[in-house]
Amino acid sequence: MKVEVVNLKKHFGATRAVDDVSFAFSSGQVVGFVGPNGAGKTTTMRILATLDEPTAGDALIDGASVVEEPERARHLVGYVPDSLPTHRDMSVHDYLDFFARAYSLKGTHREQIVASVEEFTNLAGIRDKMLVALSKGMKQRVSLARALLHDPPVLIMDEPAAGLDPRARVELRELLRVLSSQGKAILISSHILTELAEICHAAVIIEHGRLLMAGAMGDLLTNNVPQRTVLIRVLGRHEELYRELLQTPGVEKANLIGEEVAAEINGTEEACYDLLAALVQRGYRIIEFKQQRANLEEIFMTVTKGAVQ
Amino acid sequence: MTAESALRETSVRSSLSDRLNPIVVKELRQAVQSRFVIAALMTLLAIQLVAIGIYLLTSGDSLLNFDAGRGVFLMLFSILQGVSMLFVPLYTAVRLAAERSDTNVDLLFITTIKPRSIVAGKMTAAVVLTVLIFSACMPFMAFTYFLRGIDLPSIFISLALGFIVVIACAQAAVFVACLPVNRAFKVIFGIIGLVLFGMVYFATMAGVSGLIVGGIGSRIGASDFWQGAVILLVVIGSLTGLFFVLSVSLIMPLASNRALPVRLYVTAAWLLIGAAALIYSEVEDNHVPVTVWQVMFNLAFAVALFVAVSERDRLGRRVLRAVPQSPVKRAWSFFFFSGAASGLAWAAAMIGLTLAMTWLWAELYPSRNGAGDLVGSAKWLGGMCLYFFCYALSGALLRRHLLNRVGAGLTWLIGAILLSLGSIVPVLFGYLIFFGDQWWSEDHGKWLVGNPFAWSNKSHRVFYASVAGVWAVMAAALSLRWFIARVKSFKPLNARTGSLAEDDDE
Question: Mean of the pLDDT values across residues B211-235?
Answer without folding.
Answer: 82
